[in-house]
Amino acid sequence: MHADPKRVEAGDVELLERLATARSELLTQIRHRIVGQQDVLDGILTAILSGGHGLLVGVPGLAKTLMVSTVSAALDLIFARIQFTPDLMPSDITGTEIMEEDPATGKRAFRFIHGPVFANVVLADEINRTPPKTQAALLQAMQEHEVTAAGETYHLPEPFFVLATQNPIEQEGTYPLPEAQLDRFMLELRVSYPDRDEEERIVEATTGDETQQVNAVLTGEELIKTQQLVRRIPAPKPVVRAAVALARTTRPGEDGAPSIVREYVDWGAGPRASQFLVLGAKARAALDGRPMADLDDVKDVALSVLRHRLVVNFAAEAAGRTAEDICKELIEGETWIE
């Protein structure tokens, strides 16, 4: 995830223009089913183009599941939905071995049956409803794009990304995601209530008998090419330096850490945050058809990259300060920009 110092080659300019057009076409298709939520949709596309994973946080009934399945349909990708429940087992996600007998020879042998994680887009619905043992079944898949079962390693199809949903208000019978798993999500996207006009449009669209079709805009092969293009987009040294500085300002043990961080934060964001700030900035530039990432791109993705990576202490809880509040103050303070 290192910034590529080379400028975008001439042949990539056409691909950038194609990507900017594809973004508009994608949003047009998604709008057939989804009303509003522009920031969330941009976040999902940013994560997908970066090859990262997204965590969608919002109360029930905000179409989080429909949003993910619609994006998958617009990208012509293999989609799998896993409903996380307290009795879900790791093998229900990764797959399991079964004993089979060859009718011709009578010999028995084990065969691995692929689980739902063997897809391009995996929707981990209500991921915090299953115990940590089952949550951990996604760790290897999210990081290495592989699954190991019975001593054998199986590669997942490419492109591959996980979009998980989480309900922030219903905590009974839930298991908070451990920090190691949260860190593997590139972005945490907050899905908010629609405004009045949007809600009226939602009600009109969903209480009739008309079915909205979604047409594919990009294939999996085209998406892989655009992901490679995003990594080729240059991030100037000042952008990289600012992204690293922003991530480091969240760490209370860092020299020169802001007072708000020293007072309210136990653990700050790790190096993955720096990487994702730069990669997300590149993706935002690509989505706009621009050949280079800038500081505004870093600021656009910063809150979604950082807020789920900070661990606040009891003093923050007593003062009513959340990780999101602290991140907003750090981002808006711009002390990380030289």
Can you give me a brief rundown of this structure?
The protein is an alpha/beta fold. The protein is 45% helix and 15% strand.
Q: What features would you describe in this structure?
A:
- With 338 residues, the chain is α/β, with parallel strands linked by helices.
- It has 2 domains: 7-218, P-loop containing nucleotide triphosphate hydrolases (Rossmann fold, 3-Layer(aba) Sandwich); 233-338, Helicase, Ruva Protein, domain 3 (Orthogonal Bundle).
- The protein is built from 15 helices and 11 strands.
- It is globular, with a radius of gyration of 21 Å.
Strand order of the largest sheet: 2-5-8-1-9
What gross morphology would you assign? globular
> What letter string, H or E per element, gives the SSE order?
HHEHEHEEEHHEEEHEHHHHEHHEHH
Tally the beta strands: 11
**If classified by CATH, what would the architecture of the largest domain be?**
3-Layer(aba) Sandwich
Q: What is the percentage of strand-forming residues? A: 15-25%
**Count of DSSP-assigned helices:** 15
Give the averaged pLDDT, no decimals. Answer: 86
- The CATH topology assignment of the largest domain is Rossmann fold
**Radius of gyration from CA coordinates:** 21 Å
Main sheet attributes: strand count, strand direction, barrel closure: 5 strands, parallel
- Total number of distinct structural domains: 2
By secondary-structure content and strand pairing, the structural class works out as alpha/beta
The CATH first-level class of the largest domain comes to Alpha Beta
